[in-house]
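During the reporting period the student researcher (J.K.) took over the structure-prediction task from the postdoctoral fellow and processed the backlog of single-chain submissions. One of the processed entries is reproduced below for the supervisory committee.
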Amino acid sequence: MAIIFNLGSEPKKLAKKPKPARQKPVKPIPSKKADTEKPATKLGRPPTGNAKALVSLRLDADVVEAYKATGKGWRSRINDDLRKSLGL
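J.K. obtained the following structure tokens:
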């Protein structure tokens, strides 16, 4: 069993389709010499002498609320209290 499609005038339309216009060739971008380029500046804060470790810690809600009640810098105060308790 063969399937026959009625193409009608489709091949003629495809044959008469205009060709796209030629485009000018793209000029390559000149590469810069590495010795003449400025080094990329790093974003963000400058590094400090004592890098801190990022940790995820679950604390009791009342402990967190007590530190938050002391105002700004409560996270630093937790760090200070931990250092005192460890004798560091």
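The committee noted the following: Residues 58-88 form one domain.
J.K. will present the remaining backlog at the next meeting.
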